[in-house]
Each structure stands twice: as C-alpha cells, then as structure tokens.
Predict the 3D structure of the following.
Amino acid sequence: MLRPAQMRERLKLLKEKGRLPGVVAFYSPDFSGETNSLTFDGEQVEVRRCDCVLEIRDFLAARDANSTTAVMLTRVPYEELGQDVLARLAGRKLFRADSWAAVMSRFHAINLDPRLVREGWIADQLMDVPGNEFPAVPNGYLSIETVWQTLLGRFLGLGDERPDALALLRWLAAPGTIDRYSATAESFRSGFRRWVEMTAGEVGAAIADCIETTRNGDAIAVGLVLDILSQPANGSDSAMHVCAARLERLHGNHPLSDAAARKWALAARALVDERPADAPGWISRADELLTNIDADAYAVLSDVSPLGFKQRADRYAQAILTVLGGAAIEDAETAADGLERHREARIGRTAERVAMSRRLLRWLAGKTSVPLATSLAEAALVYVNCGAWIDRARTMLRGGDPQASISHAYEALLECARAEREKENQRFGKLLVEWNAGAPRHEAIIAVEEVIERVLAPIAANAPVLMVVLDGVSLPIFYEFLDNLKQRNWTILGRKITGKQVLPITPAIAAIPSITEVSRASLLAGKLVRGTSRLEKEQFASNPLLLQVSRGRRPPVLFHKGELTEPGGTELSATVREALSSAEQRVVGVVINAIDDHLSGPDQVRPEWTLEYLSPQIKGLLDEAEAASRIVIFTGDHGHVLDADSELRPSGCGERWREAAGESQAEELVVSGGRVDPGYGARIIAPWSERVRYGPRKNGYHGGISPQEIVVPVCVMARLWTKLEGWVESWPAAPGWWQGAQAAPAQRMLFAGVHAPETSDELKWLDRLFKTATFKSQRQLAGAGAAPDREARQLIEILAGRGGRMPASALAQRLGVAPARVQPRIAAIRRLLNVEGYQVLSYDYESQTVELDIEMLCKQFEL
C-alpha cells in the first residue's frame, strides 16, 4: 500500500538527483491517502489519479508548459505505458510502493539486513514516524538492531535495542509505558514479542506475554513471586509447582522453564534494589499475587515480601524461646540469618537488633560454670571484656521491636540475660565493698582520682595531651563510640602491665557514691573531693603533677560545656583552638555532658552515640588534636544504669544511693570508709542491682555500685605510628560470641593478649604452608615489605574459622589492632599469598570486607 510518506521520500531522492521539477508517477492500485495534494518541502504538490493510458496522456499534455512538480497515481502497469509516456516522467520510471526502499532512504542506507525483508509491517510503521529523516547508519547498512532501536525508542520509549529481562522491567516501571504500549497496533505488539524473545530468550517472551495479558505493571510483581517459586531448593515441592501453574495465566498461559523463571526473578530483585522508593508498591502487589495463587505460606522464602518478613520474624521469635528453653542454638542462627537478609530488616534498626539478640543467645547458650572473680580487678576486667558487651546488646533490645512476636521473644531474652548479669553485678558489688575497705590494690585497675597521676601526667611528660571527659559514659556506650572512630587514622595505645600483658582500655573505678559532684571532681582534682565545675577548673589548673609537665606560663587548662563554643555558635571557640594548637600548652582538658544530659532528659528514644551526637565539637577537637600531634585520653567520671522497670524506693538522698539508716535490703550493700565521700557520712547504702532506684523515673541513673556505674573507661588514642614508652598499639577485642562463635567456657583469661585460635584438625594443612617451596619463594620475592609468618598464620586461622570472609572492622577486633591497620596488614600478607596475581587474599574497598579463597590457597601452594 502506497503511503504519503513513501511519496515524499521518493520526491526527496529525485530532487537530490536533479530530476525535479517534473511529474512523478506511482503504480498504486490501492492508494490510501487523499488524491488532491501532498505537502513536500513546505509546498503543496498536486496529486492526480489517472486510471487509464488516455487519462495519463491528457494529464501529461496539460503539464507540458508547467514547471512545477506533480504526483500521478495510476493503476496502469509499467508494461502498458509507452516509451513516449515514460520519457515525460521524472526519472523515466513508474515507481512502485516499496516501503523498505523509502525507509532505507530515510536512514541513508544502501544495504538492508536480510532479516528485515519479511517484516513489511516494520517498514510501514517506520514510514509513519514523523520527521524527515533518521540518523545515517554506519557503512550504509541498515541492521535489524538499528531498526528496533528506532521503533522501541519512538513508539515505546525503550532505549535498549536488545533488551534483556532487567531492561524490560526497567522500561515497564517508567511512567506512561502501558499507555504507549496499548496505543500500538497488534502487528507491532506481536513483532515486539518476537524481538524480545530473540534478544532475551524465553524470559523475554514471557514478560511480553505478561504485559500483553495484564496491560499493567504486574510483570515486576510476577518476577518477585517467581523469586519464591523458582528457588532451586523448591524443585521437588509439588504444591509449589501447582502454585506456579496458577501464575501462568498472567503470562499467556505458557509454562515457564526453571531457568527463565529464575532470570525473571533476578531481574525483579535487581529492580527493587535499584528503585527502593518505588519498590513498596511492587512488593505489596507480589504479596497479593501470592495470596491469589494460594502461595502465601511460601512468602517466608522471599527476602523482600512484607508477609515473608513477618513469617521470618515469627520463626526467629519461636527459635529464641526454644533456645531459652534449653534447645541448641543452630536453628536460631539459621532463622536469624534469614531475618537479617530481609529487605525490611534493613529499614530502621531491625537488623541491628537481630544481630544483638543472636549475640546474647550465643552468650547464654555457651555459658558454663565459670570460676567466680576473686578480686575487684578480675571482676572489673570481666566487665570490660565481656559484661559491657552484653550490656551493649541488651541496650539495643530495650523497647522491643515493631513485630509483636519478636518483641515478646526479646523480652524473654532480656529477662534471661538480666538475671545472669544481676548475678555478676552482685559479685562485683561485694568485691567493691571489700576493695574499698582496704583490700590489696591491683595494677590492672586505677581509681578515678589516680588517672592524673598514673596516666595523664606521665603521658604529658612525653607529648602534649587532650583529655576528654565524657560525663556519665558507660563502657557499652564507649564501645559504640569507638566504632565511630574506626575510620580515622588513629589507634589505641594499650597500657602495659606485669607479664607483657596489655590493656587497650584500663578500667578506672568511680568514687563512691558514683555521682558527678564526687567522682568528676575527684577525677579532675587528682584526689578525692566533692565540688562544682569551678572547683574542678581550679584543681585541674593547680595540680602539682600537671604543673610539673607544663611549660612556661601555660598551666593545665580545663574547658566545660559552655566554654567550648563562641556564644550562640556551634564551632570550637577561638580560645579552645588556640589552646589545642599551642605547643606550649601541654595539657588541655574538656568536659562533654551529652550522656549525662540524656540520662536526665525526657527523651525516651535511644540515641546512636556518634561523634556528632555526643557533641558537635568532638570532631573539631580531634582534628585540632591531630594537627598538633596531641595524644587524646578519653575517660569518664562514672557510668550509669538505664531505666528498665526499676522499682522506686524513696529515700530522700540520691538516685542510686541512700543514707545507711536501717538494714540494707537484698539488692543493696553497705559501703563504708575508704573512698566513700565523708560529706555523706561514714557509710552509705547503695544497690548493686539495676532494678532499684530512689528517685523519680528518668532515662538512667547513677550513684550505685553496679559495674555499669562504677567501671569507667580510660582509653589512650594517638595517630598511627605514635611511640610512647609503656604503651603499645592495641584495640579492644570483642568476645567470640559477639563475632559469631559461642561463648568459650574459659572466660577468665582476663589478662591474656590477643592470640590466633589454636589450629583445628581442619587446618593441619596450615603447618605445611610455611614449609612449601612456593611460600619460601614468595617470601624471597616479597622482600622487606612482607608480613611475618606469625601475622600471616594468625590471619589465615581467623578467616578460615569464619568461612574465609569477614568485615574489616570485625577482623581488626580479632587481630587486636586499630581498624586503620587492617589494610596495610592485608597488603603485606597478600605479597606472600597471592601467587602470580591470583587473588588468594583480597580486600573489597566498597564493602570493607576481607576474603580468603582457601581452595585457591591450597591449590597454589600444592597443599
């Protein structure tokens, strides 16, 4: 069928060849347009139909004196025209309707892809595209890919000429796609299906069938349903096959192979990850489809289904209760893995709560009969190395979870953990009373009033120091705070004690009662006193030990909350910056009140203890300290216990202490003499239990004798490569159950350094590794930049114990080094293990993950 667009293309070609003006004749027995005129080059061209030779001769005769262009349409075949007629026609030809010729002209093509010859409808479709021409094709060859790129782009808004499943779903997600698709002719839609089947295979045809059947965006939701039904483990589930058959009505009632279903599923999942803002609608529709095909019970297999999330949460909740009842932990670990993988768990803090809950489960499941601590030093270190990590996990679970079932399970878990921790609290309280009454001192712990004498002053004698006092900081909060410092090029300098043992965090013991006016004043005065911030400032500036290490006219200086910034501002004040940057100012102290303020405030929301939340000025303080090569000492005056269904026992004294009137109750102990502030009498009564308070309800309380309130962190930090006599680089190592292993029975190895785990039977090949000729050759090639064998062995054992893959932050804790040290150590060990460029050991910078390919390691070293 001849179209006006074809006539225009022919006129254009003839004009380019200089054959116009003239009469252009077309053989057209069934012309579909008007026969009066045609617009060409902005002018009206006469169109005349002549259906016999006589009419043709008359028309040509009438045109002999006319110098304009005209179009003649005729049913008379070429063979019946005389030579005299042909001689008077433009180009001496009777042109026939050839859509592909016209299309080729528009593309400036010389040759046509043979696959297009049979697709005449495509040529007709392209001729209907407005505009004079398309971009010229390379080498004059009009390929089927170029044609489909034009068709898909102009008619459907699909920019990929060879779309795969993901490209089709991306296109379907765009606004207006279904309207554009529905506006096309049936021939176009049929051709579209054939094309996507050619480019994407079976899955392409299935998605096209789904679009044709539903005329909506259900193909994305169908893909999410198939993500459940096509999982390899479900291949033998006959009920699931029935559900898949019910789904076929949405994709043309055609069965779908497992491979095609999986491709569709993976494309839908990828789109959900790419378009998180649009994903809820697709996911919700997928849950509707699951219900419609009676497959809602299988939603638990989906990592994105809200229905599946609830099912996984219920499964994990039941597993928690089962473990608490004495069952093995393996099923709970599996259920937790599934819940953490779910998309819904990554929204909010659900995944973090799951991680904390499974840590508590591991601790409880692995808990055995451990010898009791016999001294306050042992008890304090038990809290530093284990108890504080437990309390950190407990804190995260306070307030439950939006899912009712799992919230109930968390309550039960917390109660079990609390009962165990209360036993430890009671033992700690008794040992504190003994120590306070005159028990022998131990070098592993120091009193808060000794921090200046035993830590600050000795360090200040060798380097300028910034001491940051985090008022009210507990060890659980401090560990969370440390996580925010991992990205800085800082390390912890651990304190050496007898036997080459190192304490990354030294436990300091708060004054009694553990309240600000006693404990903070004693910390900053260097002696047991009670007073206000004014006394703190005076005592800190006049401390004899600090004056000895100060220079010239720059005595120690202490800044409180209101002095850190200029009036009305948030940036560090000029006075603080000047003090920190001055080489003459040897000692600078800063008090941060954010934690204590939160405990007293009405806000019940648990904050994230980031640098910014603790104080907008901390980052500036650390930047200034780093620029001035200052060592930073983080410490506190006392900790706190958080409110959790505590019992009010009015006393008229402090929040967590009272006068020693009458007998102490079961949750209380009498503390007398020693470090008890005499201003409150010769003795006081304070609770070791976190269940008791004596004042109004708040976020948290302090003043008691639980380890949460009494044990204060003293942590010395410096830039990498800093050397300081008596201090060595270290980092606090989380307990094994925190990282993934159950609690070890022997938790009383309190003063042990960080060691690699013992070689298991599965790792006996490791003994042979360092003796192989290949390893010896690698060490020789690596030169001085290679790591020592002991470091390589330690790393391999840790990674092998975790399946070969581990986050860099977790690896740093297991190695006992600053997180900033992990990358250099990995680089040094890769020199030994990566033979001929094979990535035996790799570091993924994007995910901050270290991976050891054990199979390749054994192959490369012939183990």
